[in-house]
Amino acid sequence: MKFQQISDQELVHNYVAGNEACLEMLIKRHKRKIFTTIYLIVNDRYIAEDLFQETFIKVIHMLKNEKYSEEGKFLPWAVRIARNLAIDYFRKAKRTPTITDGDGEDIFKYIELTEENREEQIIRKQTEKQLRVLINQLPEEQKQVLVLRHYGDLSFKEIADVTKVSINTALGRMRYALNNLRKMMIEKEISLQ
Amino acid sequence: MNSNFTTEDLLLYLYNEMEPAKAGALKEELTLNPLLLAEYRRLKETMAKLDEETHEPHPTTINMVMDYSASFYSSEHHAE
After folding, report:
1. Rounded to whole angstroms, how far apart are CA atoms A3 and A6?
2. Would you call A31 an interface residue with chain B, using a CB distance cutoff of 8 Å?
3. How far is residue A47's CA from residue B59's CA, in Å, rounded to a whole number?
4. Is A127's CB within 8 Å of B12's CB?
5. What angle do helix axes A8-16 and A20-42 make, rounded to 10 degrees?
6. What is the pTM (predicted TM-score) of this model?
7. HEC assignment per residue over A94-149
8. Tell me, what's the ipTM?
């Protein structure tokens, strides 16, 4: 059976049964969504690496101690753990998310080799950085919905539950987030194509 | 927008969260209502831009997680 055909539910089941490779498959499948969610919340690559690790330590504990009961919904469950850890981080540090860019990119230049030429890579990285800055300029409640829906793959219903608002409020915040982001991109002359 | 559908409906549709019957009706209205279609395109374009912003953890971080998992039962045993 091909990797893509194995469901998260099966991977979780086989991992709990002792197949360590299944955890690696789960991580490979979801690492971008989980890590991007954390990174956009904390806006610091070093902290995001730590919180990603903490998220999976918690995941491992819950799976191996058979405390996981949301079979088939691994990603939203893992994203909720990640989001809670990211928010706890700010509570413990007694600080709020900032819009500064302390991402430590100089050290973590492990960008995958692609067929892009150097100029294209530079432009892409600049756009990414600009986009991240813009996302961090959104009001916190809009940013949270945008990050959890677009990167974390939580449904609007799940976001409403997590953030303790109605689905309509979550949808309204997403609408404002996308509109505001679009306006900022136009102002900053970031290509929308 | 002068439509039976709102921007919030478009968001549910674009994120595949709309029930099939309503999604079918919205899809049909998109072919008839240029204002709704323009709003749909605006949202889709912005969402596509967001897809360019993805990051992944350093391989070392993943290795540390895998090492932790492999030693889980022995570390739990020591903790007891």
Report:
1. 6
2. yes
3. 15
4. no
5. 120
6. 0.79
7. CCCCCCCCCCCCCCCCCCCCCCCCHHHHHHHHHHHHHHHHHHHHCCHHHHHHHHHH
8. 0.85
